[in-house]
Design goal:
alpha+beta; two-stranded antiparallel ribbon; 4-stranded mixed β-sheet; 156 residues; 4 helices
Length: 156
């Protein structure tokens, strides 16, 4: 949707966010090089099972912090638009946080894990398909390499 086509709610915008990082876990998820650091092609290195456990726990904790700060419950959220890392993480976080499956926007099956682009792509999909509308409360979350994670609540 083009900017000139979008008319968001009068109170649209970020309500709150919680961002955390833990550099002591950098060995669990990282890139082992790159043109700017080693002059080579870097490859993603990950200890999958440990990353999964940390992702579910940390993301859930950030979401809980957002809910605690606002006094909202997961039932009051209109849409959960998560980072599209993999469906197992999405399902586990939604289950742990008691977010109804019908409220979870999943697009990882359409474009895989596109890293930082996954939330905007998923939100765009939710808007274009008519699911997310102006005034809706959107909860998003992400986790990345070196171990950084967070959750945000905003109104369209």
């Amino acid at each position: 949707i083009q900017a000139e086509e979008w008319t968001g709610a009068d109170d649209a915008g970020i309500i709150t966010h919680h961002i955390r990082t833990d550099g002591t876990k950098s060995d669990l998820l990282y890139v082992d090089g790159g043109v700017s650091s080693t002059g080579t092609i870097g490859h993603v290195r990950m200890e999958g099972n440990r990353v999964f456990r940390h992702a579910v726990a940390n993301i859930s904790s950030a979401i809980q912090a957002v809910l605690d700060e606002t006094g909202l419950t997961s039932e009051q959220i209109d849409w959960f638009v998560p980072h599209q890392a993999n469906k197992r993480i999405l399902d586990a976080v939604a289950k742990r946080m008691k977010i109804d499956d019908d409220k979870v926007i999943i697009t990882v099956d359409q474009h895989a894990n596109t890293s930082a682009a996954s939330i905007p792509l998923a939100l765009n999909h939710a808007v274009r398909t008519g699911r997310a509308k102006p005034g809706d409360l959107i909860l998003s979350e992400a986790m990345g390499g070196g171990f950084s994670w967070g959750a945000s609540l905003f109104r369209l």
